[in-house]
């Protein structure tokens, strides 16, 4: 994802704590999912979701003194990374009351702004759980992943995302003994942007060189980032959508420092492909395929199907293609085809598509440099964790998804126009004040054999 989720809380301090508090009991909202086969149909799984630990209240062990307040760490409780991990506890969450997260049966709704009794929460991120202490791991090669989504209440500047990241199943608990909270409390996040705002990495506080955010009074960044391979199945609002693999040259969650994080001018020198290879129908030349009243009509719910096709049609074969289709009102809708000068009419993500796109748009082919489908396929075979989120973008106002970006390029240049939203849209202060009740609903999650999760 182009930026990690940022949020503003007035009284609760949020951090990635490693011990467990007892002020609020942790109870994971249930979210049924299904596993499907071509021969046996679909069976229901008793899965649930857990809130990412970066959102949670972090306080001293056995008490209620904040370890992190506003943009600053408490220097007494947190004089150094290891002492902070020992002194601070991560507490349970009031999912609906504080974070606007509700689930019913197989449906999960994430509300954008939630005004609770003690705080105003902005956005959220949750992970699908196989048990109370383990994330559900998805081996995606030669499989398809399907879900229903309602983005009708997501305006410009917001992102209702569903994606996979190469996190550890236990949240890093077994690797790092200082992490006492584990997956039960949403620890261990990583992604291909190598985010620096994660407050605990590898069981230690990321407080060295901590710098407050210039645009979010409760956010900041530390010396370290946390990197891993990422498969963005769904980044979208009502105006635009993209699906994007992001390979890395490392396997599993990796703490980065300096050049390897790929920050700023080192963007293409890091260990992960931050750009990814995206298929955005609007960016690829079809401006009427997705949106309000479009072929895929975002005024109502629809089904999203993503297929991970291998060269020999086995779960161990080489990843060959990532294919997308939609189902709405009982009709299967094939993905749009690219309509860009100098490119063939591609309708899925392949190595050839990625190379042709990078050339046509004048972009660096960092996807290939970071291992492309080989490394992405290795992650899909090993197993990845499902993340679902709603967020606004303090780094680039979500213009990279739904508007023209970068701003210093002519929108008529191939690859610059990505959606119909204005280049002045997406400012977090505007989105948070004008669309606080925005939300996204994900439902009917299915995973299984190709062709088994939807009706054609």
Automatic annotation (TrEMBL):
Pfam families: Glyco_hydro_7 (PF00840). GO terms for biological process: cellulose catabolic process. Residues 422-437 have a biased composition (Polar residues). This is Glucanase. PANTHER family: 1,4-BETA-D-GLUCAN CELLOBIOHYDROLASE B (PTHR33753), GLYCOSIDE HYDROLASE FAMILY 7 PROTEIN (PTHR33753:SF2). It is an enzyme of class 3 (hydrolase). Belongs to the glycosyl hydrolase 7 (cellulase C) family. Residues 1-17 form the signal peptide. Residues 411-437 are annotated as: Disordered. Its EC number is 3.2.1.-. SUPFAM superfamilies: Concanavalin A-like lectins/glucanases (SSF49899). Keywords: Carbohydrate metabolism, Cellulose degradation, Glycosidase, Hydrolase, Polysaccharide degradation, Signal.
């Amino acid at each position: 994802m182009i930026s990690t989720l940022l949020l503003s809380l007035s009284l609760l301090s949020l951090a990635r704590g490693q011990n467990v508090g007892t002020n609020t009991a942790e109870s994971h909202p249930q979210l049924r999912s299904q596993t499907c086969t071509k021969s046996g149909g679909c069976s229901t799984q008793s899965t649930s979701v857990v809130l990412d630990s970066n959102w949670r209240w972090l306080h001293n062990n056995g008490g209620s003194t904040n370890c992190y307040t506003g943009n600053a760490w408490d220097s007494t409780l947190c004089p150094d990374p290891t002492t902070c991990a020992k002194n601070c506890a991560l507490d349970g969450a009031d999912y609906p009351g504080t974070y606007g997260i509700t689930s019913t049966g197989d449906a999960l709704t994430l509300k954008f702004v939630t005004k609770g009794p003690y705080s105003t929460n902005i956005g959220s991120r949750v992970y699908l759980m196989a048990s109370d202490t383990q994330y559900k791991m998805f081996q995606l090669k030669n499989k398809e992943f399907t879900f229903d989504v309602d983005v009708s209440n997501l305006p410009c500047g917001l992102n209702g995302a569903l994606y996979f990241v190469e996190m550890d199943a236990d949240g890093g608990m077994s690797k790092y003994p200082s992490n006492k909270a584990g997956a039960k409390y949403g620890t261990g996040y990583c992604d291909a942007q190598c985010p620096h705002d994660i407050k605990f990495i590898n069981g230690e506080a990321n407080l060295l060189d901590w710098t407050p955010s210039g645009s979010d009074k409760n956010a900041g960044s530390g010396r370290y980032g946390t990197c891993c391979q990422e498969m963005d199945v769904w980044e979208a609002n009502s105006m635009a959508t993209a699906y994007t693999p992001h390979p890395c040259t490392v396997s599993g969650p990796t703490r980065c420092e300096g050049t390897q994080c790929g920050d700023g001018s080192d963007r293409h020198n890091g260990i992960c492909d931050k750009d990814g290879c995206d298929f955005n129908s609007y960016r690829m030349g079809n401006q009427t395929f997705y949106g309000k009243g479009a072929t895929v009509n975002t005024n109502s719910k629809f089904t999203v199907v993503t297929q991970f096709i291998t060269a020999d049609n086995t779960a161990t074969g080489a990843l060959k293609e990532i294919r997308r289709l939609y189902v709405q009102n009982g009709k299967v809708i094939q993905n749009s085809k690219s309509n860009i000068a100098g490119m063939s009419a591609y309708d899925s993500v392949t190595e050839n598509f990625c190379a042709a796109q990078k050339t046509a748009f004048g972009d660096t082919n960092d996807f290939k440099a970071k291992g492309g489908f080989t490394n992405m396929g290795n992650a899909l075979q090993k197993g990845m964790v499902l993340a679902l989120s709603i967020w606004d973008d303090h780094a680039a106002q979500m213009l990279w998804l739904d508007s023209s970006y970068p701003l210093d390029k002519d929108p008529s240049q191939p690859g610059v126009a990505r959606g119909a939203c204005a280049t002045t849209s997406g400012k977090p202060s505007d989105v948070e004040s004008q669309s606080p009740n925005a939300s996204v609903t994900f439902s009917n999650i299915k995973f299984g054999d190709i062709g088994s999760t939807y009706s054609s």
